[in-house]
Amino acid sequence: CGQEDEGFDLGKDVNVPQRLGFSQVGSESGWRLANTRSIKKAAGLREIDLTFENADGDQKKQIAHIESFIEDRVDVIAFSPVVESGWDAVLRRARDAGIPVVLTDRLIDSTDTSLYVCSIGAEFISEGNLAALYLGNTFAKAKKPATVVEILGTKDSTPTRQRSEGFAATAAKEKRLRVVGSEPGDWTKAGGEAAMRKLLRSHPDLDAVFAQNDEMGLGAVSVLEDAGMDPGQKPRIVTVDATKAGLQALVAGKLTYVVECSPEFGDDLMDVVVDLCLGGTVPRRVESEKAVFDKASAEDALPDRTY
Ligand code: AHR
């Protein structure tokens, strides 16, 4: 399979439910829990026979899940890779068994484009761009460049790498931003707290924090408050995801700006599964929705926010 959208038809009997094996990254964040809910709900609505496995952040478990899906002869395998590398061998086995693979949320770094038929998810580079653009505009008229730190997600995962890439590229064009350090926060509140403590020790006079998800941003907020600072104001805090907790903190003035990364692509995934099984054109890439939020737009969005 190349880079083009492709026609598929596994020739499945219409009266037999399509069988999907899905391996999830884990349960590390509100975003992830919402993503799991979206996938299960969408499968239920289409009466797809879903085998759902949770890898608890462990690539070895995900490889074992994929192997058992191959053994069970599911119709389609989908997974959200914990890390980007190390998938070629197991995905070659899936391909050789004639089982199409769909990547969700995250990507793999293989150069072999025949290992999966479609990927569904957000444009993480552009999320990083948007975060830096907001901070660049905020400090455009500042007398001296703003001191900025970054709290990263898990190592070697697509969102960590690409959000950093987008943030660094746009920050480099913004003369008023000086990114002085970064620390991993593992997508969790506790990880965000630990990262913020470390960063604060080396950079006590911070102007802004870019936390790559809401949980880590909320962890940073609690450390900054304990240090007697006024998070949301100084330092400004920008996060990604736009969960209910993130938007509430934005309305409360603890966060300053939030870039949305929608976890609700369960319907897109199930549509691809049905097209693979019963015949249809499958797009090589499906991009999920995004928006940006300040305090006022977060207030508007909160009543309808489901995650
Ligand atoms: O891969 C998406 C990222 O993973 C989300 O932004 C983060 O919250 C999650 O854990």
Description:
The protein is of the alpha/beta class. The chain has 10 helices and 14 strands. Helix 8 links the parallel strand 10 (about 235-240) and strand 11. Helix 4 (about 125-140) packs parallel to helix 5 (about 160-175) and helix 6 (about 190-200) packs across helix 7. The protein starts with 5 loop residues before the first strand and ends in a 6-residue tail after the last helix. The structure holds alpha-L-arabinofuranose (AHR). Alpha-L-arabinofuranose (AHR) binds near residues 28, 31, 32, 213 and 241. It comes from Actinoplanes lutulentus. One of its GO terms (molecular function) is carbohydrate binding.
TL;DR of this structure?
The protein is of the alpha/beta class. It has ten helices and 14 strands. It is elongated and about 65 Å long.
